[in-house]
Amino acid sequence: MIADQQLAQEEKDVVDRFDLLSKLRFNQETGKIWLGESRLLLLHAKAMMEIRTRLFDYLDAETAKRMLIRIGFVAGEQDADLAHKLADNENSYDVFRIGPELHAFEGHVRSHITEAEIDWETGRFFGEVIVENSWEAEAQLQSLGLSDEAACWTIIGYASGYTSRFFRRFIVFKETECMCKGDHHCKIIGKPADCWDDENYIELFRDDPLSPSLREIEKELSQLRGKRQVKYDTDGLVGASPEFTSALNLLKRAADSPINVLLLGETGVGKEVFARWLHEHSSRSDKPFIAVNCGAIPHELLEAELFGVKKGAYTGAQESRPGRFERADGGTLFLDELGDLPLSAQVKLLRVLQTGEVERLGDDEVRKVNVRLVAATNVDLQQAIKEGKFRADLYYRIATYPVNIPPLRERRGDILILCNAMIDRFSASYQKQLKGLSGQAMQVLTRYEWPGNVRELENVIERGVLLANDGGLIELDHLFVNPPDVASAEDRISEVNEQGLVQPLNSLPEMNDFFYDKLLEQEQFDLARHEQQLFEAAVRKAKGNLTHAAQFLGVTRRQLAYRVNEKSR
């Protein structure tokens, strides 16, 4: 009895020491549950029991076991990543003990480490764990009764995944006692995979996809259903949202025609990518695609760049050279930031578009060019016409076929699709194998406003791929130096208190009238000072996280940051 009490106290110490309860949060507004940065599902045990039963009904026993082990293994890896984040300079064994506590949080089991032999330097490991209240053992007993075989496949999968990720070595657990066999409790033993003399058992843990026979069956079923894989990457353009699809459909209609196209949209939406797609899907695809950023070239040199120059036309013109129009002959000329074009260049551009003829600077010779113009701007050209900064006749010449490229905040459904494509591209560049984004990272990415649009997203994802551990997930702190505050004022976030009850994050204990009466009886009561102390207490309780501290007080993060910064000044 004393030993049990001591064990319970040690486990409670782990929970308190690492403040594990605060890592489990419920957001009623978004319908999401979080454990650290990973999204959880609160699923009925009965539903999991049904899934488990059907796996054994529909698949052979080995494949069903393999799938259950894999489910547990991945969950264990996720929790090991959270444990590492909580580690700091803590004792490694104490950090390792976080795993059983997290598994209990998630409602799977109550685990007690009864024996552990660990050598951190050599990677030597032996562990023995007593498992109580296993949902999987209950499922087996309810559906099939007593068995000759152990049944806690997700449990050993979790222990193996957690320990393997924690030690960076392939560790495998095996169930030696199980309630399904009539044992008093379940017991699992773990050691490195190469220390088990049972290769067939180890094979169950390897990350192997479905067997060839099952893949063949799935292929046949897909063909019978006429099923096609959805392709979100249309030769460089990635997306599936209605806003993206609308813009793409307009480009498709114009692709094979000679019509000039005007791409409209904010900075960073990918106008040049759309322009290249248009060129590559036109009858001019085997001819040059020449891109010019009108805002990046000094005005005094812009005409020479566009139309060419004759030797000696101005100081520094050491030789004659063709302009971008001549170089794009037969193909497509893309003029980006058209709104920055000076009026003098606008006149010459209009003439070229009207006549199909170009004259180099300082030269009288007329040269015929056959160029399709695709222009782009983030400037309101009609307003620029009113202000005398853009010629109306040029506008009507180039705006025959405008296509609006939506900003990323208006096509949020494409954000994760774009992220996956970018992760694949940058993973190849940095020679990494990554498992994608953490749940918290996905939430922030899809909620963020993206003022820099796709270009900003691309930079963020490249940073994440660079900083993420090979074989792991891209976490929120890999993506941003200072993660943006995307919490909504409507978010109703709850946490688990020390009694195991879920309560609103910003709830405070009920204060009776006596407390307030005593507070007001103080001489020279200073309301501002008490408010400031309350703000500081919230920041301390939230361990410096201003977003969480603001939720304690029911104010915005900006309001809290202002009060905290005001005190420091």
TrEMBL record:
GO MF annotation terms: ATP binding; sequence-specific DNA binding
Record flagged with keyword ATP-binding: yes
SMART domains: AAA, V4R
UniProt entry keywords in alphabetical sequence: ATP-binding, DNA-binding, Nucleotide-binding, Transcription, Transcription regulation
One of the Pfam families matching this protein, by short name: AAA_lid_14
SUPFAM superfamilies, sorted: Homeodomain-like, Ligand-binding domain in the NO signalling and Golgi transport, P-loop containing nucleoside triphosphate hydrolases
Protein name, UniProt field: Sigma-54-dependent Fis family transcriptional regulator
InterPro entries: AAA+_ATPase, AAA_lid_NorR, Homeodomain-like_sf, HTH_Fis, NO_sig/Golgi_transp_ligand-bd, P-loop_NTPase, Sigma_54_int, Sigma_54_int_dom_ATP-bd_1
GO biological process per UniProt: regulation of DNA-templated transcription
Species, as recorded: Alteromonas lipolytica
Domain Sigma-54 factor interaction: 237-466
